[in-house]
Amino acid sequence: MGNSLIRRSAARLGETIDARRAEAASRLDPRERSRLGQFMTPTAIADFMAALFTQWPQHTVLLDPGAGIGSLTEAFAEEFRKRAPRGATLEAHTYEIDPILLAYLRRHMSDIATPIIDQGLGFEGFVHDRDFVAEAPFLGGMGARRFTHAILNPPYKKIATTSAHRRLARAAGLETVNLYSAFLGLAITLMAEGGEIVAIVPRSFCNGVYFEPFRRYLLERAAIRHIHVFDSRTSAFRDDAVLQENIILRLVRGARPGPVTLSFSRDASLQDLVSREVPFTEVVHPDDARVFIRIPSGAPEVPGTGTFQHTLAELGLTVSTGPVVDFRVRAHTLPNPREDAAPLLYAHHFRDGHLVWPVTHKKPNALALTPETRKALLPRGFYTLTRRFSSKEERRRLVAFVVDPADLPHPLYGFENHLNVFHANKAGLSEDLARGLAVYLNSSAAERAFRVFSGHTQVNAGDLRALRYPDRATLAAYGRWARGSTLPLTQDAIDALVERPRGR
Description:
Layout: E1 3-6, H1 17-27, H2 30-36, H3 43-51, E2 59-65, H4 71-83, E3 89-95, H5 99-118, E4 122-128, H6 132-141, E5 147-152, H7 164-171, H8 179-189, E6 191-202, H9 212-221, E7 222-230, E8 246-253, E9 260-265, E10 274-278, H10 280-283, E11 318-321, E12 333-334, E13 341-345, E14 350-351, E15 354-355, E16 366-368, H11 371-374, E17 378-379, E18 383-387, E19 400-403, E20 412-415, E21 419-423, H12 431-441, H13 444-453, H14 461-466, H15 472-484, H16 491-498
Parallel strand pairs: 2-3, 2-5, 3-4, 5-6, 7-9, 13-20
Antiparallel strand pairs: 1-4, 6-8, 7-8, 9-10, 11-21, 12-16, 13-16, 14-15, 17-20, 18-19, 18-21
């Protein structure tokens, strides 16, 4: 049934929705779920999302793309039943392509109808068993911007440049790299002016080069009114072992930017929710050429950190991804050092903040010197490094180390691609500057600042360029402190130094 109008009455079974969700999930092929990026919405989150809507017109037209078994539509319908004006009608359009989920969705849409109709309100439910990304550009081209509300938990899946989904999104003027942002962007396109969109999506679109076109698309067409953040990276979809950090957005189509409500909770229970309002300029900085969407922390501002406003370019520094991609130079890698080779450093060569090289490991320790490999090597000197990846629930994203040439007496160094390297025009730094950078990057203040705009496990060089730093004199002072300290550089000691109000 391609476009079926469902009006059957049935008892609402809202209390069993989580059981249905678990039952449906157990019937799905795990490989197919992975291919389609399917993760179903727990009831507590669905109810919270529905409660974020503020407008309830006489005729509400809802879009739920990638509806699954209908959890979000049910939550929305319950909110509509409580808050809509007398005699109002709800027209709900759901999209789903999985045959197993479609069976649950059709039954669930029937369940949704009864309490609404019994209350004297109107309901029409449509189930569309078609690909939303394929359908939306057609609807948009026909001028079908009539949805007053959209609620969505879209599929999470990268889309290749040559894929049909990428071409379809591009045809609608949307350039993006993931299904979730394609769903969200196309939903925005189909909204009526003033229409509200509430979506739970990965936070990864908020920063990075690849999502910049999508951020521009979103911000040109809608205003951000609310962002909710879960402190735990996996809590929103714990049953599905999702590793992305998810946020909930409320957007208003065609509205002007204004204050943004930020709310925070530790997990999906939402029992410890706190919120505050910030100006839009704190979320998207007016001078940010990359239009990063920043999410200010729920923690109060740290004394002194507001003065850290310098870019790496202003400091005369650069950060780059480690230039050695080991599989491309595999023919030249060596398990052990030798005279005609350069040290090849990986993240595992750093233990407890110190360089340990060489080590017995499945990865090589050195790179033979050839015309091909020399192009990827840097000269001996002090360098500050960070890891590019953290594990899913690791406490810190930023973990910095210093390469001291006294520990590595070789003329050239190789830095593997899973490291970020701070350098000065492809040369080393002064010792104090290198050690000071590491102190700052390992501080809680830098970690909080980084998490404002980065919500995924990767620490990309572009993200480190977006971070703001102390001036060179302050960094050098940190370095002298680190170099002269006779005690271990504990987190408390680093934080006491960096968060000390300036001028003391």
